[in-house]
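Render this sequence as a predicted structure.
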Amino acid sequence: MFRPRPEDQWTLYANDSAGVAAAAKADLTNAYNDAAGRPPGTTVNDLSGMVLAPGVYSSGSTMSIAVGDTLTLDAKGDAKRCLDLPGRVFAYREQQCSGAAD
């Protein structure tokens, strides 16, 4: 479960005259459409301890990571913002929505 830390800085864009929220919504829509348009990839259910290269990872049911274990997303040596670069996309598809363990 995501829990904000006290030191995180948050900004509410309720009356967004600069268009920041609209741009974020457009970016999210583009990212969703990109992921939805990719073919199914490697089938994997338990991600515990795995090191994944950029690609599409699918599951017929749910994906999980054991509590206390890790999942490493390996951008192949590209230390820049790997999720924003062409060819450095990590997409996950599962048939069911799963919850997070506390």
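Summary. The two ends are 7 Å apart (CA to CA). Helices lie at 20-36.
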